[in-house]
Design goal:
eight-stranded parallel beta sheet; 10 strands; alpha/beta; binds zinc ion; TIM Barrel; about 10% strand; globular; two-stranded antiparallel sheet
Length: about 325
């Protein structure tokens, strides 16, 4: 049973690919400090500038934190940590066994800055066959199979290597029937550009998840246009409630109440069967142990809030259970 699901998380990850060096000399030293209560205020505002903050390496911490989601009624965590940011099949299997949660592992490759020499030189077919092998046979002979293709990283502007990887991911989607989950570049034009390429390669929008909707699309007209394609819309940054967004300082990170308003708009528009939720935990400061919201923020705080604002039970069930079940089911 898939049950209550978080559709985009990271239990373990090396997210230093997004490390942002502070420009001021006096701040550079902080980059190397471990996250403590003393520097947590600075880390929260500059979360991409602390190396320690971007490393989720401790399995016991992952078990403790994910267990809170289980205790809050959760069943499944989709871990879309792709190759290049530390995907760890054996550790995900151990975490699944120790927490009682289903952990669905991803396959594929993240943004350009994490691409290996092999990946840059590989052909579309070579990349596709590796993804297909992950889904059908398991990673590197471990027998541990991926249940989703993603997250497939795309920057803005989109790079050639990322374009090649997405094409390979679409080939693998067609071959396996597995869902494809895309991380779009930070620009409102990115989603439709990516989706038109996916369509051109013969991808299936009903088996495609567009991630990070809230930090990518601010305009309701564009949101409606993307929704009309039929893809899943992943509001996957719940709990990220600090409006300053160091990865895109010219825009902002919406607050939870803005996410809820977007979701209510989509539901009123008849789009409830396309919505997925998650936190995209990828740094220490979002874990409870480090003063964050943890993996149970959605079931413990967001779902009650959506109910209190009048969301119908069937829509809550659709978003939390039915949509992820349909999205994750393939032969
Ligand atoms: Zn992610």
């Amino acid at each position: 049973m898939v049950g209550l699901t978080l559709a985009h998380e990271h239990l373990l990850i090396d997210f230093t690919a997004v490390l942002t060096k502070p420009s001021e000399a006096s701040q550079r030293g902080r980059m190397h400090e471990p996250v403590t209560l003393e520097n947590l205020g600075w880390v929260r505002h500059n979360w991409t500038s602390s190396i320690d903050n971007l490393r989720l390496f401790d399995e016991q911490t992952a078990v403790d934190e994910a267990s809170e989601f289980f205790q809050a009624g959760g069943s499944t965590i989709v871990d879309v940590t792709s190759v290049g940011v530390g995907r760890d099949p054996q550790a995900l299997l151990r975490i699944s066994r120790r927490t009682g949660l289903n952990v669905v592992m991803g396959s594929g490759f993240y943004i350009d800055s994490t691409h290996s020499d092999w990946l840059r030189a590989a052909s579309v077919d070579e990349i596709a066959s590796q993804i297909i092998n992950d889904v059908d046979e398991g990673v590197d002979g471990t027998g541990i199979r991926a249940g989703i293709i993603g997250e497939i990283g795309c920057s803005w502007p989109w790079t050639d290597s990322e374009r090649k990887v997405l094409e390979a991911a679409v080939v693998a989607q067609r071959e396996t029937g597995a869902p494809l989950l895309i991380h779009p570049g930070r620009d409102e034009k990115a989603p439709l550009e990516l989706l038109s390429a996916v369509d051109g390669w013969g991808g299936d929008f009903r088996r495609t998840v567009l991630s990070h909707i809230e930090r990518t699309i601010y305009d309701r007209g564009i949101l409606d246009e993307v929704a009309a394609t039929g893809v899943y819309l992943n509001f996957d940054l719940f709990g990220h409630d600090e409006s300053h967004y160091p990865l895109a300082p010219d825009t902002y990170m919406p607050a939870d109440h803005e996410r809820i308003e977007q979701i209510e708009h989509l539901i009123a528009d008849g789009r409830s069967s396309q919505i997925l939720l998650a936190h995209d935990v990828c740094s220490k400061h979002r874990l409870k142990r480090y003063g964050g919201h943890g993996y149970d923020h959605i079931p413990s705080r967001i779902v009650p809030r959506m109910r209190a604002r009048g969301m119908h039970e069937e829509d809550v069930r659709m978003v939390m259970v039915d949509n992820p079940t349909r999205m994750l089911t393939f032969n």
